[in-house]
Write a structure and sequence with these properties.
single chain, about 280 residues, mainly alpha, MetI-like fold
């Protein structure tokens, strides 16, 4: 509790981001409790209703409650964001540990493959995969996870290169510890703060990419809502009814901002170099 109080006191912007993220997680977990109606309930007699007490975010072209669709859209963003970051963390950590620890020829081969990996245009690569496989949450998670693995592995590799020079690694090696034990018991715990910071910042980027794909029509297929899909659907009526794009857009901005601010605060708290500067 004391650490939490200090975090709130010295990192108020990061604490604000944490509060928003916790609220987002709760919203994604129980959207049916928070939303006043189901995301697919339509009422053609109440199309394009401006925000009011009965519909605080208004209604869309089919009379669906925009607030309810924003709430259910949070589940899409959270599920894809966490899934992609978890998948990318597993792959990038494995690649970064092997490449940074063994070095020499394995490192050279892996890094050249990473160079080729990063040379592919990311958005075109994802659209190519989604055009082959039908768009779904699983397809998006796998495609984005593969995309975000390459850059993260470089960050982890650089951390491993620093940590493996520590005396505690030499001591473990001199006692006959296996490479697997050194990687899992000595190096991995010491790069855990980097993994946490990278994941918190990466979720915001994942949500932006998922929103862009949904806006282009390659996201979660309807009728399930996503914030990017809501922006796409609002295009024909955006000038007459700007609230159709305003509220999903605000949800995207607030979510990405919160993850970025939390990532910056965690970096200041967990990174020893930043603690020294503070």
């Amino acid at each position: 509790m004391r650490a939490l109080r200090d975090f709130i006191r010295y990192k108020p912007v990061g604490a604000f981001g944490l509060a928003v993220i916790l609220a987002l997680l709760v919203t994604a977990a129980i959207p049916g409790v928070i939303a006043p109606s189901h995301y697919s309930d339509f009422d053609l007699l109440n199309r394009f209703q401006d925000p009011s007490s009965s519909h605080i975010f208004g209604t869309d072209n089919q009379g669906r409650d925009v607030f309810s669709r924003v709430v259910y859209g949070a589940r899409t963003s959270v599920t894809i964001g966490l899934g992609v970051v978890l998948l990318a963390a597993v792959f990038s950590t494995t690649i970064g540990l092997v490449s940074g620890y063994y070095g020499k020829l394995p490192d050279l081969i892996i890094q050249r493959l990473i160079d080729i990996w990063q040379a592919f245009p990311g958005l075109i690569f994802i659209i190519f995969l989604l055009s082959i496989f039908s768009p779904s949450q699983l397809t998006l998670i796998v495609a984005l996870g593969v995309l975000f693995t390459a850059g993260s592995s470089r960050v982890i590799r650089s951390s491993v290169l620093q940590v493996k020079q520590g005396l505690f690694v030499e001591a473990a090696r001199s006692t006959g510890a296996s490479d697997t034990r050194i990687l899992l018991r000595h190096i991995l715990p010491n790069i855990a703060p980097i993994l946490i910071i990278n994941a918190s910042v990466q979720i915001g980027a994942v949500i932006l990419v998922e929103t862009s794909l949904s806006f282009l029509g390659f996201g979660i297929p309807p009728p399930f809502p996503s914030w990017g899909g809501m922006l796409q659907a609002a295009q024909p009526d955006m000038q007459q009814h700007p609230y159709l794009a305003l509220f999903p857009g605000l949800a995207i901005v607030l979510t990405v901002y919160s993850f970025n601010m939390l990532g910056d605060a965690l970096r200041d708290v967990l990174d020893p170099r930043m603690r020294g500067m503070r």
